[in-house]
């Protein structure tokens, strides 16, 4: 059986590359591929080639719409990474409207760790970003650009934390580590 942490990691593989959309994964991690699953990337490529990669605007309505699009696929995902916690809340609402359960049927992971994340049902697994660090970096970049119009702000990588809560876990139809 795939652990909650492994399922969350599968759902998060697209976080860096696919900000602004829902990232969907099918199956689980394999022992031979500890950082992901070739099937996952195949699923992504198939979605992209058919123009079926749902776009979202970080609000709950777009998360609900994107999840409905994913559920309409011949092979719906077993894990979804939403670009914001509010999109994840919308995705959970879409699941509930068709009598599916998170994470029993589909795991959902958000991004931001908003206050609401721990109070929705199920409590939302999410990526917590350093909001103060992000604000400080933005302020430094703004000051730098005001002082030197030719300055190019640096590209920064700020630390994030995976906060595992109840919305991620092995789905009924998901893969196992022994596939």
Describe it for me?
This protein is α/β, with parallel strands linked by helices and 179 residues long. It has one domain: Response regulator (Rossmann fold, 3-Layer(aba) Sandwich). The chain is built from five helices and five strands. A five-stranded mixed beta sheet has the order 1-2-3-4-5, sandwiched between helices. Helix 3 packs across helix 4. The C terminus is likely disordered.
Estimate the strand proportion.
Answer: 5-15%
What kind of sheet is the major sheet? Answer: 5 strands, mixed
* Cross-sheet strand order for the largest sheet: 1-2-3-4-5
In total, the number of domains comes to: 1
Name of the CATH architecture? 3-Layer(aba) Sandwich
* Computed structural class: alpha/beta
Could you provide a short overview of the structure?
This protein has helices at residues 4-12, 38-49, 60-71, 85-97, 131-147, and strands at residues 23-25, 79-81, 107-112, 125-129, 160-163. It has 179 residues and is α/β, with parallel strands linked by helices. The protein has one domain (4-130): Rossmann fold.
């Amino acid at each position: 059986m795939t652990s909650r942490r492994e399922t969350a990691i599968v759902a998060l593989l697209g976080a860096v590359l696919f900000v602004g959309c829902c990232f969907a994964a099918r199956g689980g991690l394999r022992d031979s591929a500890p950082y992901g699953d070739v099937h996952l990337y195949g699923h992504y490529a198939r979605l992209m080639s058919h123009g079926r990669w749902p776009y979202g605007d970080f609000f709950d309505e777009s998360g609900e719409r994107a999840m409905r699009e994913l559920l309409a696929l011949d092979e719906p995902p077993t894990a979804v990474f939403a670009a914001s916690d509010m999109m994840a809340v919308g995705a959970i609402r879409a699941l509930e409207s068709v009598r599916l359960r998170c994470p029993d049927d589909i795991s959902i992971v958000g991004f931001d760790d908003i206050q609401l994340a721990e109070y929705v049902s199920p409590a939302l697994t999410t990526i917590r970003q350093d909001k103060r660090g992000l604000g400080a970096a933005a302020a430094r970049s703004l000051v730098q650009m005001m002082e030197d119009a030719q300055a190019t702000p640096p590209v920064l990588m700020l630390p994030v934390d995976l906060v595992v809560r109840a919305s991620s876990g092995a789905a009924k139809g998901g893969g196992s580590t022994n596939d």
